[in-house]
Amino acid sequence: MNNYVEGDNIPLGFGLTLAQNPEAMAVFAGLTVPQQLAVIEGTHQIRSKQEMHAYVQKLAQNGFMAL
């Protein structure tokens, strides 16, 4: 089983943005592996730094169900 909290297979842009947002990091770390995979899958549609920051902020503020 992959440990996505430790950074295995996390897209670089998502990982860097997540590292800048402790609240989002805590939410992500608390997710199940299938939920983490779903969050990561959602990053594949993101095309700019601004979109990535908004995605991570939404995760921090509203949790997994908001994505």
Describe this structure as you would to a colleague:
By secondary structure, the protein is an all-alpha fold. Helix content is 61%, strand content 0%. The chain has four helices and no strands. α1 packs across α4 and α2 crosses α4. The longest helix has 14 residues. It is globular.
Structural class: mainly alpha
Secondary structure: helix percent: 55-70%
The sequence of SSEs as H and E is HHHH
Task: Give the biggest sheet.
Answer: none
Quaternary state reads: single chain
* Count of separate DSSP helical elements: 4
Report the uncertain regions: none
Q: What percentage of the residues does DSSP assign to strands (E)? A: under 5%
Whole-Å distance between the termini?
A: 24 Å
How many strand segments? 0
Integer-rounded radius of gyration: 10 Å
Mean pLDDT: 89
Principal-axes shape call: globular
